[in-house]
Amino acid sequence: MKNLSLVLNIILIVAVGVLFFLHFSGESSEPQQEPGIMEAAEYSVGYINADSVLKNYDFFKEMQEKLQERGQKLEDEYKSRAEGLQKEVNDYQRNVNNLTIGQAKAVEESLMKKQQNLRMLQESLSQELIKEESKINQELYEKITSYLDDYSKNHGLQMVVKYNQGSDVLYASDSMNITNAVIKGLNDAYKKEKEAPVEGEANTDTTAVN
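Above: the chain's sequence. Below: its structure in C-alpha coordinate form.
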Protein backbone atom coordinates (compact mmCIF):
# COMPACT_ATOMS: atom_id res chain seq x y z
CA MET A 1 0.00 0.00 0.00
CA LYS A 2 2.93 2.36 -0.53
CA ASN A 3 1.10 4.38 -3.16
CA LEU A 4 -1.77 5.26 -0.83
CA SER A 5 0.51 7.35 1.39
CA LEU A 6 1.40 9.43 -1.68
CA VAL A 7 -2.19 10.58 -2.05
CA LEU A 8 -1.92 13.04 0.83
CA ASN A 9 1.20 14.54 -0.72
CA ILE A 10 -1.02 15.52 -3.65
CA ILE A 11 -3.90 16.62 -1.41
CA LEU A 12 -1.85 18.71 0.99
CA ILE A 13 0.95 20.09 -1.21
CA VAL A 14 2.21 23.46 -0.02
CA ALA A 15 1.24 26.10 -2.58
CA VAL A 16 4.10 28.50 -2.02
CA GLY A 17 3.12 30.51 -5.08
CA VAL A 18 -0.22 31.28 -3.45
CA LEU A 19 1.52 32.84 -0.47
CA PHE A 20 3.56 35.07 -2.72
CA PHE A 21 0.43 36.08 -4.58
CA LEU A 22 -1.41 36.92 -1.35
CA HIS A 23 1.47 39.05 -0.14
CA PHE A 24 2.54 40.85 -3.28
CA SER A 25 -0.68 41.19 -5.33
CA GLY A 26 -2.32 44.59 -5.50
CA GLU A 27 -0.83 48.03 -4.95
CA SER A 28 -0.14 49.37 -1.47
CA SER A 29 0.09 52.98 -0.44
CA GLU A 30 1.90 52.16 2.82
CA PRO A 31 5.68 52.71 3.02
CA GLN A 32 8.02 49.81 2.32
CA GLN A 33 9.36 47.77 5.21
CA GLU A 34 13.06 47.83 5.99
CA PRO A 35 15.13 45.07 4.39
CA GLY A 36 14.68 41.77 6.20
CA ILE A 37 11.26 42.71 7.63
CA MET A 38 8.07 41.38 6.03
CA GLU A 39 4.61 42.47 7.08
CA ALA A 40 2.51 39.50 8.17
CA ALA A 41 -0.06 38.49 5.61
CA GLU A 42 -3.62 38.15 6.81
CA TYR A 43 -4.28 34.47 6.39
CA SER A 44 -4.68 31.46 8.67
CA VAL A 45 -2.93 28.13 8.18
CA GLY A 46 -3.51 24.76 9.79
CA TYR A 47 -1.48 21.60 9.45
CA ILE A 48 -2.06 17.87 9.79
CA ASN A 49 0.17 14.87 10.29
CA ALA A 50 -0.57 12.82 7.17
CA ASP A 51 0.65 9.54 8.66
CA SER A 52 -1.69 9.92 11.65
CA VAL A 53 -4.63 10.67 9.37
CA LEU A 54 -4.03 7.54 7.29
CA LYS A 55 -3.42 5.41 10.37
CA ASN A 56 -6.64 6.48 12.10
CA TYR A 57 -9.05 7.17 9.24
CA ASP A 58 -11.61 4.35 9.33
CA PHE A 59 -12.37 4.57 5.62
CA PHE A 60 -8.73 4.13 4.70
CA LYS A 61 -8.26 1.23 7.14
CA GLU A 62 -11.34 -0.60 5.80
CA MET A 63 -10.39 -0.05 2.17
CA GLN A 64 -6.85 -1.20 2.91
CA GLU A 65 -8.16 -4.42 4.46
CA LYS A 66 -10.50 -5.03 1.52
CA LEU A 67 -7.72 -4.44 -0.98
CA GLN A 68 -5.44 -6.85 0.86
CA GLU A 69 -8.19 -9.47 0.93
CA ARG A 70 -8.83 -8.95 -2.77
CA GLY A 71 -5.11 -9.21 -3.49
CA GLN A 72 -4.90 -12.47 -1.54
CA LYS A 73 -7.90 -13.87 -3.42
CA LEU A 74 -6.35 -13.04 -6.79
CA GLU A 75 -3.02 -14.49 -5.69
CA ASP A 76 -4.73 -17.72 -4.62
CA GLU A 77 -6.53 -17.91 -7.96
CA TYR A 78 -3.26 -17.55 -9.86
CA LYS A 79 -1.49 -20.03 -7.58
CA SER A 80 -4.22 -22.60 -8.14
CA ARG A 81 -3.95 -22.25 -11.93
CA ALA A 82 -0.15 -22.43 -11.77
CA GLU A 83 -0.22 -25.58 -9.63
CA GLY A 84 -2.67 -27.19 -12.04
CA LEU A 85 -0.39 -26.46 -14.97
CA GLN A 86 2.65 -27.75 -13.10
CA LYS A 87 0.81 -31.01 -12.43
CA GLU A 88 0.11 -31.39 -16.15
CA VAL A 89 3.80 -30.76 -16.92
CA ASN A 90 4.84 -33.38 -14.37
CA ASP A 91 2.37 -35.90 -15.81
CA TYR A 92 3.71 -35.26 -19.31
CA GLN A 93 7.32 -35.70 -18.24
CA ARG A 94 6.41 -38.92 -16.44
CA ASN A 95 4.53 -40.43 -19.40
CA VAL A 96 6.40 -38.93 -22.36
CA ASN A 97 8.11 -42.22 -23.18
CA ASN A 98 4.73 -43.86 -23.68
CA LEU A 99 3.63 -41.29 -26.25
CA THR A 100 4.23 -41.18 -29.97
CA ILE A 101 6.18 -38.26 -31.42
CA GLY A 102 2.94 -36.74 -32.68
CA GLN A 103 1.22 -37.14 -29.33
CA ALA A 104 4.18 -35.65 -27.43
CA LYS A 105 4.28 -32.68 -29.79
CA ALA A 106 0.56 -32.06 -29.34
CA VAL A 107 0.87 -32.18 -25.55
CA GLU A 108 3.86 -29.82 -25.59
CA GLU A 109 1.99 -27.31 -27.75
CA SER A 110 -1.00 -27.50 -25.41
CA LEU A 111 1.20 -26.93 -22.36
CA MET A 112 2.93 -23.97 -24.01
CA LYS A 113 -0.43 -22.40 -24.81
CA LYS A 114 -1.60 -22.90 -21.23
CA GLN A 115 1.62 -21.34 -19.99
CA GLN A 116 0.99 -18.27 -22.17
CA ASN A 117 -2.59 -18.06 -20.90
CA LEU A 118 -1.31 -18.26 -17.33
CA ARG A 119 1.08 -15.38 -17.99
CA MET A 120 -1.77 -13.34 -19.46
CA LEU A 121 -3.90 -14.17 -16.42
CA GLN A 122 -1.15 -12.92 -14.11
CA GLU A 123 -0.98 -9.62 -15.99
CA SER A 124 -4.78 -9.31 -15.97
CA LEU A 125 -5.01 -9.91 -12.22
CA SER A 126 -2.24 -7.39 -11.57
CA GLN A 127 -4.01 -4.76 -13.67
CA GLU A 128 -7.26 -5.46 -11.87
CA LEU A 129 -5.61 -4.89 -8.50
CA ILE A 130 -3.95 -1.70 -9.70
CA LYS A 131 -7.30 -0.43 -10.98
CA GLU A 132 -8.97 -1.11 -7.63
CA GLU A 133 -6.14 0.62 -5.76
CA SER A 134 -6.42 3.63 -8.08
CA LYS A 135 -10.15 3.81 -7.42
CA ILE A 136 -9.54 3.81 -3.66
CA ASN A 137 -6.89 6.53 -4.04
CA GLN A 138 -9.33 8.72 -5.94
CA GLU A 139 -12.09 8.19 -3.38
CA LEU A 140 -9.68 8.91 -0.54
CA TYR A 141 -8.58 12.11 -2.28
CA GLU A 142 -12.16 13.27 -2.78
CA LYS A 143 -13.24 12.53 0.79
CA ILE A 144 -10.30 14.30 2.41
CA THR A 145 -10.28 17.35 0.15
CA SER A 146 -14.03 17.76 0.50
CA TYR A 147 -13.83 17.58 4.29
CA LEU A 148 -10.85 19.95 4.47
CA ASP A 149 -12.71 22.42 2.26
CA ASP A 150 -15.68 22.48 4.64
CA TYR A 151 -13.46 22.49 7.73
CA SER A 152 -11.41 25.42 6.44
CA LYS A 153 -14.51 27.47 5.64
CA ASN A 154 -15.99 26.82 9.08
CA HIS A 155 -12.76 27.65 10.92
CA GLY A 156 -11.47 30.53 8.85
CA LEU A 157 -8.47 28.75 7.33
CA GLN A 158 -6.97 29.75 4.00
CA MET A 159 -4.57 26.82 3.80
CA VAL A 160 -3.97 23.36 5.25
CA VAL A 161 -0.51 21.84 4.86
CA LYS A 162 1.13 18.51 5.61
CA TYR A 163 3.66 18.67 8.45
CA ASN A 164 5.71 15.48 8.63
CA GLN A 165 9.37 14.65 8.73
CA GLY A 166 10.62 15.31 5.24
CA SER A 167 7.92 17.86 4.35
CA ASP A 168 8.71 21.41 3.26
CA VAL A 169 7.41 22.81 6.56
CA LEU A 170 10.33 23.10 8.97
CA TYR A 171 8.41 24.48 11.95
CA ALA A 172 4.78 24.98 12.93
CA SER A 173 3.22 25.90 16.25
CA ASP A 174 1.16 23.24 18.02
CA SER A 175 -1.75 25.67 17.98
CA MET A 176 -1.92 25.15 14.21
CA ASN A 177 -2.18 21.36 14.52
CA ILE A 178 -5.66 20.25 13.43
CA THR A 179 -4.80 16.56 12.97
CA ASN A 180 -7.02 15.15 15.72
CA ALA A 181 -9.95 17.36 14.76
CA VAL A 182 -9.65 16.29 11.12
CA ILE A 183 -9.44 12.59 12.01
CA LYS A 184 -12.54 12.86 14.23
CA GLY A 185 -14.43 14.81 11.59
CA LEU A 186 -13.52 12.37 8.81
CA ASN A 187 -14.54 9.37 10.91
CA ASP A 188 -17.82 10.97 12.01
CA ALA A 189 -18.65 11.77 8.39
CA TYR A 190 -17.77 8.24 7.26
CA LYS A 191 -19.86 6.71 10.05
CA LYS A 192 -22.90 8.75 8.95
CA GLU A 193 -22.26 7.74 5.35
CA LYS A 194 -22.24 4.05 6.29
CA GLU A 195 -25.36 4.36 8.44
CA ALA A 196 -27.33 6.22 5.78
CA PRO A 197 -29.99 4.00 4.15
CA VAL A 198 -29.24 2.83 0.66
CA GLU A 199 -31.39 4.65 -1.88
CA GLY A 200 -34.47 2.59 -2.65
CA GLU A 201 -34.35 0.39 0.44
CA ALA A 202 -36.65 2.56 2.50
CA ASN A 203 -39.11 3.05 -0.36
CA THR A 204 -40.46 -0.46 -0.68
CA ASP A 205 -44.13 -0.10 -1.49
CA THR A 206 -46.60 -2.74 -0.38
CA THR A 207 -49.55 -3.35 -2.63
CA ALA A 208 -52.84 -4.15 -0.91
CA VAL A 209 -54.63 -7.21 -2.15
CA ASN A 210 -58.38 -6.80 -2.44
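The helical segments are 2-11, 16-24, 50-56, 58-95, 101-155, 179-195.
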